[in-house]
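User: Sequence recovery, please. Input:
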């Protein structure tokens, strides 16, 4: 990787420790003099945050079609990419993202078992050739992650899915990580200090420090 601004994404199942990891990575980058902005998906612009609320809300009067869920994720992503991510990178700011496109491929592709061709069409239309420079995938057994998430309070619509949904999502995450460059798998079942050590090592290696 060169000295230019980078797009770094943190991925993983709920309770994997993404928020905790992002604080650590932000500190790591700022210590090295990088101008960093953090994003989250779905969300990160006023409209995208409204879409986030809609997609997470439990719907009692109708079933949310998996295709609708996917389209809402990409609608939110389009807003974020156009209004925040691309302008920030163009200004030389590092973008540190809590979830991005890999989430759609894992949750909607793996968990919901949506057609990969459909997802790829949307990826191409929304993202063009925008790809993260580095993705840190925090891998965790969904039973452990959901237990951590449960301790925080009420579960949203997606978090209320059965364990099998999250197991399929994890399998898809691992499959993508094994087949693509610039994705590093972090063992997120370890204590926080060990996860942070793995993140530091991964960043040192990727950023050449
Ligand atoms: N979604 C989708 O389906 N498709 C898409 O394209 C996108 C998203 C972009 C977003 O929810 C939902 O949208 C998500 C996927 C879906 N749904 N589900 N289900 P969100 O943003 O609200 O939730 P999240 O992304 O899953 O984040 P989270 O639940 O807040 O998890 P986290 O950020 O990974 O974890 P954390 O807050 O850092 O840690 C959770 C707790 O564990 C906390 O109390 C920590 O202190 C503790 N923790 C953290 N690390 C450790 C370790 N190492 N050991 C022990 N305890 C730890």
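Assistant: Recovered sequence (209 residues):
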């Amino acid at each position: 990787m060169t000295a230019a601004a980078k797009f770094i994404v943190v991925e993983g199942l709920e309770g994997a420790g993404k928020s905790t990891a992002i604080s650590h990575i932000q500190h790591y980058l700022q210590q090295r003099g990088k101008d960093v902005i953090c994003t989250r998906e779905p969300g990160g612009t006023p409209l995208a945050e409204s879409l986030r609320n809609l997609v997470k809300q439990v719907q009692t009067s109708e079933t949310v079609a998996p295709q609708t869920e996917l389209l809402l994720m990409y609608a939110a992503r389009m807003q974020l990419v156009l209004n925040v991510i691309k302008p920030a990178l163009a200004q030389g700011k590092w973008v540190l993202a809590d979830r991005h496109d890999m989430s759609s491929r894992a949750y909607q592709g793996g968990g919901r078992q949506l057609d990969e061709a459909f997802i790829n069409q949307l990826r191409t239309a929304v993202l063009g050739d925008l790809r993260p420079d580095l993705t840190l995938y925090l891998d965790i057994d969904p039973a452990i992650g959901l237990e951590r998430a449960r301790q925080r309070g009420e579960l949203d619509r997606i978090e209320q899915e059965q364990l099998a949904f999250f197991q399929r999502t994890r399998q898809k995450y691992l499959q993508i990580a094994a087949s693509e460059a610039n994705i590093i798998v972090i063992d997120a079942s370890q204590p926080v200090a060990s996860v942070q050590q793995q993140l530091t090592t991964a960043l040192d290696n990727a950023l050449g420090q």
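The helical segments are 18-31, 46-56, 66-90, 101-111, 116-127, 142-150, 163-179, 192-207.
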